[in-house]
Automatic annotation (TrEMBL):
Database matches in InterPro entries: Class_I_Hydrophobin, Class_I_Hydrophobin_CS
Name of this chain's protein: Hydrophobin
One Gene Ontology CC term in the entry: fungal-type cell wall
Top-level taxonomy: Eukaryota, Fungi, Dikarya, Basidiomycota, Agaricomycotina
Cell compartment(s), UniProt: Secreted, Cell wall
Pfam families: Hydrophobin
């Protein structure tokens, strides 16, 4: 009984000490990691205007929108670097013009 309690406690302590996880290649569950020229919220005037021109309606104006995005297929290969903002986005179905629900990630792991 004490061994089980100690083992469980040790597991939680180890998990807490591990620190935050960072997305690595292949860990973007919604598609390939994207490299976007900028990431703004939908309430940003320029981003809002772009969404309007494309006929895209978002329910939450605080949702991060990636603008001018392209996929990063293989990290570490010359020519596949991202000098702007690497992100993982929920909806990349707008041909790279915009991507919706983007979360910045660290690809330098």
């Amino acid at each position: 009984m004490q061994f089980t309690l100690f083992s469980t406690l040790a597991l939680f302590v180890a998990a807490a000490a591990a620190g935050p996880l960072e997305a690595r290649q292949g860990q973007c569950n919604t598609g390939p990691i994207q490299c976007c020229n900028s990431v703004q919220t939908a309430k940003d005037p320029a981003t809002s205007a772009l969404l309007g021109l494309l006929g895209i309606v978002v329910q939450d104006l605080n949702i991060p929108i990636g603008v001018t995005c392209s996929p990063i297929s293989v990290i570490g290969v010359p020519g596949n670097s991202c000098s702007s903002q690497p992100v993982c986005c929920e909806d990349n179905s707008f041909k790279g013009i915009v991507a919706i629900g983007c979360t910045p990630i660290n690809i330098n792991v």
